[in-house]
Amino acid sequence: MSTNLRFTQKYADSILSVLNCHDRVIVKGYLPFFKDAYLNGFVDSVLRMRRKDFVPFLENCSEELVEHAKRLAGDHYRFVQGDHDKERIIRGQIHERKLTEGLVAVLCCMETCRGVRLRYAEKRPQLQFSKRPQRVLYYYFLDPEFGLIYVRMQTFFPFTIQVYVNGHDWLARQMAKKQINFVQNDNAFTQLDDSTAAQCLADRFPRLPWVRILKHWAYFVNPLLSQKWLRRYSYYWVIDQAEYSTDVLFRRREDLQTLFPRLIDHTLLHFSADDILHFLGRRLHPCFDGEVLTLCRKHRWPGTRIKHRVKNNWLKMYDKFGQILRIETVINQPREFRVRRQCTRKGISQMAWCPMNKGVANFYRYREVALASNQRYLDALAVVDVPPATERQLDRLSQPVSHHGRRRRGLNLMHTEEQKLFQAILRGEHRLNGFRNRDILNTLHTQPTRSADERRRRMHRVSRQLQLLRAHGLIGKVPHSHRYQITPKGEAVMSTAIRVRAKTFPQELPCAA
Question: 47, 347, 356, 448: which could form a disulfide with 339 (CB 3.0–4.6 Å)?
Answer without folding.
Answer: 356
